[in-house]
């Protein structure tokens, strides 16, 4: 029953550069519906159930590989599916850090606090899912796994983080979010720029323009940053507004800013405040790692869905509300 999945895993291993990655043997026919990859990014690993008072997590930085798997015709339950994959993790040297099922995880709020590839590539039944977090300490690798079901099918989502130091900020990372059938323009990594090459920005996205709006209005929406509903992972870019903001901050050492994340109204307020803060932290991390922005003068906070800029009653409005803004917190222009 594992032959087809085994051949698929071998194909994935041969498709990219050699690196340590957990490649599961699925219990039956399986297909990868989407893969998201980032050469360097941040990820928040859940290590406890979601509660209104908070959740135990661990923030990781390094190479991130995500994959969503569809198991057509799978008829066993999520317990059996997770048990099979847990055994494979143990053989690969991983140890379990935390494990839960639907209600003990925290149900709806736990699921929407997770960074998952969205529907239709990854399906999560809110009444039947299981989660597992594991660590491979010898190699500094962490893995988060979600398994769920739909009628006559199983679903598996894997996120693996290989910890590493930040890359040279002069060279952009090779973050990519690649789904089957995408072209390089839609999701593949951009070629790395040579050190010293100025970032390409569209008309109107230069640092002086963003700085002038910050001084005049106090806040600016950072356009072009794409988040799926329920996720805190940035797409590959380009990051025109981030490059411009970083340039302005480097030229104005008096300026203090806070990056503020906002969400749509999918899920509870507490879960969305946490999600929006992770989005802000992801943007802050990219400002620093990719664009060399001054770390000490940039904060990150989350507002959840408390400050919409459009109606949440339409898909277009919800997409506009999933945004990140930068707020100028300095009380004097040109001084402390």
TrEMBL record:
Instruction: Provide a GO CC annotation, any one.
Output: cell outer membrane
Domain OmpA-like: where? Answer: 215-332
Report the domain of life of the source organism.
Answer: Bacteria
The UniProt annotation puts the region (Disordered) at 166-205
Chief location of this protein within or outside the cell: membrane
For this UniProt record, the keywords arranged alphabetically read as follows:
Cell outer membrane, Membrane, Signal
Position of the signal peptide: 1-20
Give compartment(s): Cell outer membrane
Q: Does the keyword Ligase feature in the UniProt annotation? A: no
- Composition-biased stretches, type Low complexity, lie in 166-180, 189-205
Its name, as the record gives it, is OmpA-OmpF porin, OOP family
Organism in which the protein naturally occurs: Phaeovulum vinaykumarii
């Amino acid at each position: 029953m594992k032959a087809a999945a085994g051949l698929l895993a071998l194909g994935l291993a041969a498709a990219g550069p050699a690196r340590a990655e957990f490649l599961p043997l699925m219990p039956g026919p399986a297909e990868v519906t989407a893969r998201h990859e980032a050469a360097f990014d941040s990820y928040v690993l859940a290590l406890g159930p979601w509660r209104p008072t908070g959740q135990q997590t661990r923030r990781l930085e390094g190479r991130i590989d995500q994959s969503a798997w569809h198991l057509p015709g799978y008829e066993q339950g999520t317990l059996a599916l997770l048990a099979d994959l847990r055994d494979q993790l143990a053989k690969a040297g991983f140890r379990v850090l935390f494990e839960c099922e639907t209600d003990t995880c925290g149900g709806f709020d736990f699921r929407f606090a997770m960074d998952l590839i969205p529907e239709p590539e990854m399906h999560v039944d809110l009444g039947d899912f299981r989660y597992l977090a594991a660590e491979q300490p010898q190699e500094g690798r962490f893995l988060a796994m979600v398994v769920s079901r739909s009628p006559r099918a199983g679903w598996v989502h894997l996120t693996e983080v290989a910890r590493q130091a930040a890359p040279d900020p002069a060279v952009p990372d090779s973050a990519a979010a690649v789904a089957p059938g995408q072209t390089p323009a839609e999701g593949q990594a951009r070629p790395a720029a040579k050190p010293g090459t100025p970032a390409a920005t569209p008309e109107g996205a230069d640092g002086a323009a963003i700085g002038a709006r910050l001084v005049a209005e106090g806040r600016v929406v950072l356009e072009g940053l794409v988040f799926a509903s329920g996720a805190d992972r940035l797409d590959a870019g380009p990051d025109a507004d981030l490059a411009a903001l970083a340039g302005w901050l480097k030229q104005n050492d008096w300026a203090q800013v806070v990056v503020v994340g906002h969400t749509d109204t999918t899920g509870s307020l507490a879960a969305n405040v946490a999600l929006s803060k992770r989005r802000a932290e992801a943007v802050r991390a990219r400002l620093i790692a990719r664009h060399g922005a001054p770390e000490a003068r940039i904060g990150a906070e989350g507002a959840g869905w408390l400050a919409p800029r459009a109606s949440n009653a339409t898909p277009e409005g919800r997409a506009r509300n999933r945004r990140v803004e930068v707020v100028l917190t300095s009380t004097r222009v040109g001084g402390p």
